[in-house]
Design brief:
By secondary structure, the protein is α/β, with parallel strands linked by helices. About 40% of the residues lie in helices and about 15% in strands. It has an eight-stranded mixed beta sheet with strand order 4-11-10-9-8-5-6-7, sandwiched between helices. A four-stranded antiparallel beta sheet has the order 12-13-16-15, with helices on one face. A two-stranded antiparallel ribbon has the order 1-2. The N and C termini lie far apart (about 55 Å). Bound molecules: pyridoxal-5'-phosphate.
């Protein structure tokens, strides 16, 4: 049972009211059934009944009989969290995101592969989901309905921020599953998180002076973005293309070393949930230190939560954006891992004026996303198909991860040393002394296995004694075959 002080039902009622006040639950949202609430909170059902009665009496929720219990439509707009959200818009504006006067976003209307070897039979180098698990029949049906529905509206020009329907579905998902207080106005849909990273960089970084003779210089570190080292090359490239200067900051077993952040940054790019590529989970102390640092230094945090769902030990940890009292976090997510990278669907959650500015840039980049795909995927989110798929694939990937560990012990004993983090769809391991990982990688490619090594994640491309094994895409038997080939390759490389 959950430890709650005082009358348990009052505590529970307060928790739910708090979620409504801070916007994690919104007017019209359906609450889970009393039975599932009781199971989730590990309290008696009668406690939930009493809490719901209390909230109904206070006017927070209404029961609509068999349809369920809903957050009341009339919620007073007086919460400290809403005020924080408004402050957030101003705070992020203060770090250089002020919306420029422009058009109304509503009306206008080859990545290098880590480990190379794009054609390898086993690409254990890249952390992608298994496309065989994607619910393609449900997707196809939703796609057909999206094409035909609403007077074929999905075939028209639309909002540059993404379809209202998908933004609402993503906002609801972020509120309910990740605790981020947001509505559709705080969400921008992108062509994968890569586009989100690029747009954010363009918003954050000041353009270089146009006149080649100009003596005007970028103000101090003003165009610098701190990045994790080791880290995600594709993000670095987007930042550099936008004119940013990159400042590498080390990562240790607790995540980004916040004390090493220099002053005068424009933004800090982090992957705190499962650090890329080490999969380290940022410790609570570091999270608090990072948020406090950003608030004090008035710097934006670009939080890339690329595989939020794949946390195997306990529930996923709430994103930094869920605790962002200062309004510094620009949160980036993707459906590439939880559904499929080929769909190209990512999103940004941020204060409204940041979203408006990003929408303006998106409009001049490619006007809008694919409305049909957006409507179809919105349907998968709305009817719970995505949540079902997530639960199913998380269970399968959890088993595959356990199977990989057994296989490594059997086929490569004493070769790889790693601390298993609570989540992520890759294993990051240090190779034993004397193993030349770059030679191993070459021999692996001859065996049809693309292996990523430390070098793929290092800014200077230094040889580092690490390898990364991505396990989600392959069944236990397939992965065992890939590891056997790796063992053979290692023998040849010695
Ligand atoms: C750190 C990180 N961010 C984001 C992504 C997802 O990119 P996209 O959404 O553009 O497919 C990946 C995919 O590999 C990644 O590793």
């Amino acid at each position: 049972m959950v430890a709650m002080s005082g009358a348990v039902f009052v505590e529970l009622a307060n928790m739910i009211a708090y979620d409504i006040r801070r916007g994690a639950l919104r007017a019209g949202d359906r609450l889970p059934s009393q039975r599932s609430f009781a199971a989730r909170m590990r309290v008696n059902r009668s406690t939930v009944v009493a809490a719901f009665d209390e909230l109904t009496a206070q006017g927070w929720i209404v029961s609509r009989g068999a349809a369920g219990t809903f957050v009341a439509d009339e919620i007073p707009d007086r919460s400290p969290e809403r005020a924080a959200l408004k402050r957030a818009s101003r705070a992020v504006g203060a770090v250089g995101l002020a919306a420029k006067p422009g058009f109304d976003v509503r009306t206008i209307a080859v990545a290098p592969w880590p480990g190379g070897a794009r054609d390898a039979k086993f690409r254990v180098s890249i952390g992608v989901p298994d496309p065989r698990l994607v619910p393609v029949d449900a997707l196809a049906r939703a796609y057909r309905r999206a094409l035909r529905g609403q007077h074929r509206a999905a075939l028209e020009y639309s909002d540059a921020r993404g379809s209202e329907r998908l933004r609402a579905a993503v906002a609801a998902m972020l509120r309910h599953a990740r605790g981020i207080p947001c509505g559709p106005e705080h969400v921008l849909i992108t062509n994968g998180s890569q586009m989100a990273l690029e747009l954010c960089a363009r918003v954050l970084v000041e353009p270089a002076p146009r006149d080649a003779d100009s003596r005007r210089e970028a103000p101090g570190l003003g165009n610098s973005i701190a990045i994790e080292e080791l880290g995600y090359r594709q993000a670095w490239r987007a930042f550099e293309e936008a004119g940013a200067r990159l400042v590498g900051v080390p990562v240790d077993a607790a995540g980004l070393v916040v004390d090493e952040l220099p002053a005068g940054l424009r933004a800090i790019y982090v992957t705190p949930h499962h650090q890329y590529p080490t999969t380290v989970l940022m410790s609570p102390a570091r999270r608090m230190a990072l948020l406090a640092h950003a608030r004090k230094a008035r710097v934006a945090i670009l939080e890339d939560d690329y595989d939020h769902e794949f946390h195997f030990d306990g529930r996923p940890v709430a994103p930094l954006a869920a605790d962002d009292a200062g309004g510094n976090v620009i949160y980036i997510g993707t459906l590439s891992k939880v559904l499929a990278p080929g769909l190209r669907l990512g999103f940004v959650a941020a204060p409204e004026r940041v979203i408006e500015r990003l929408g303006q840039l998106r409009a001049v980049t490619d006007r809008q996303g694919d409305q049909i795909v957006e409507h179809a995927v919105a349907e998968l989110i709305e009817d719970g198909e995505l949540a079902r798929h997530t639960r199913r694939s998380r269970a399968i990937y959890g088993e595959r991860r356990a199977a990989l560990l057994r296989t490594l012990e059997r086929e490569l004993p004493g070769v790889l040393d790693f601390a298993l983090p609570p989540g992520g769809i890759t294993v990051w391991a240090r190779a034993a002394d004397g193993i030349h990982v770059e030679r191993w990688k070459q021999r692996a490619a001859e065996q049809g296995v693309a292996l990523a090594t430390g070098r793929d994640f290092d800014r200077e491309g230094r040889a580092l004694p690490y390898v990364r094994l991505a396990f989600a895409r392959y069944t236990e038997a397939e992965m065992a075959e890939a590891v056997r080939r790796l063992a053979k390759a290692l023998k040849a490389a010695r």
